[in-house]
Amino acid sequence: QTAPVRVLSKCLLTCLDVSWQSGGDGHCESPFFRCDVHNLQEGRDGLCLCIRGYVHNIQVGRSRVCLCIRGDVHNIQVRRSRICLCLTGDVHNLQVGRCRVCLCFTGDVHNLQVGRSLICLCVSGDVLNLQVGRCWVCLCVSGDVLNLQVGRCRVCLCVRGDVLNLQVGICWVCLCVSGDVLNLQVGRCRVCLCLTGDVHNLQVGRCRVCLCFTGDGHNLQVGRSLICLCVSGDVLNLQVGRCWVCLCVSGDVLNLQVGRCRVCLCVRGDVLNLQVGICWVCLCVSGDVLNLQVERSLICLCVRGDVYNLEVGRSRVCVMGDNNNPDELYYYKEPRCHQNRHLSECSLSVLLTCLDVSW
């Protein structure tokens, strides 16, 4: 009557069919299994399973369930209940119904599907074919993620592995990824991307976006939103719409295009084909700058490298770039500044092939 399952700690439980009652039939309310469990089913009550073996075909009904399993898990199905899964093994074909689910995985996850519920996924293994419905989702994944799809919900993705074909609907999304990201698409939402890997074909809709990249970025497109880009790797084909953009890049930047917005570029690498529209731009570049074009805006260039083909429209320009006197400030406030004086007299160790401004 106290703990009938303790004597079975070193055996194989091929079938465990129990109906937990709160202080009724004498069964142990918090059993600790150190062997294998197959075909686990529980009734309408709270159940906490701390199992260090393998679990197959776990099914839970209307109850509060906590599974702390360090083995493999296959075919887990949970219905109307509050479930907390802390797994260190593999998970295959996990399906959860209308409930609040918390998954803490350290193994592989395949074919994870969750219905209308509040879901928290903390996965340190691989995730394949993860699909979540209308719910609140938190994904903390240190493995690979393939074909991740989330519906109308609030989503928080903290991923340290690769992410392929990530699609999120109308929701709040937070992506903290240390791996590669391919084909990332987010709808109307607030998105925060903190990536340490490569980024390819990143597209974000009407939202507030914060991008902190330490890897390569290719084909980055963001819609009407507030964007903060902190990139320490290479960025290719960066395009941003009507928004507020802050670029802090320590790598190379190629084909950077920004629309009507406020842009702050702090770049320590090479910049090629930089184009900014009607906006406020601040460029702090310690590398080479080629083909820099800025239209109606206020521009501040603090460049310690070479500058080629600098063109600025109706704006205020400040160039700090003397290698001998890096703290000396030069203002080109009037057109006669470069008509009556040679650019070499300004002690600039750069080559300004074209500077056409109208103050």
Please name the defining characteristics of this protein.
single chain; 359 residues; mainly beta; 31-stranded parallel β-sheet; 18-stranded mixed β-sheet; 1 helix; 49 strands; elongated; disordered C terminus
Structural class call reads mainly beta
Radius of gyration: 28 Å
Oligomer class: single chain
Q: Give the number of DSSP strands.
A: 49
The end-to-end span amounts to 90 Å
Q: How would a textbook summarize the main sheet?
A: 31 strands, parallel
Q: Kindly state the percentage of residues in helix.
A: under 10%
Spans of at least 5 consecutive residues with low confidence: 1-39, 41-46, 320-359
Instruction: Give the strand content.
Output: over 45%
Shape assignment: elongated
> What is the arithmetic mean of pLDDT?
53
- What's the number of helices? 1
Question: What can you tell me about this protein's structure?
Answer:
- With 359 residues, the chain is mostly beta strands.
- The protein is 1% helix and 50% strand.
- It contains 1 helix and 49 strands.
- The strands form 2 sheets. It has a 31-stranded parallel beta sheet that branches. The chain has an 18-stranded mixed beta sheet, with no helix packed on it.
- The chain is elongated.
- The chain starts with 15 loop residues before the first strand and ends in a 19-residue tail after the last helix.
- The model is unreliable at 1-39, 41-46 and 320-359 (pLDDT under 50).
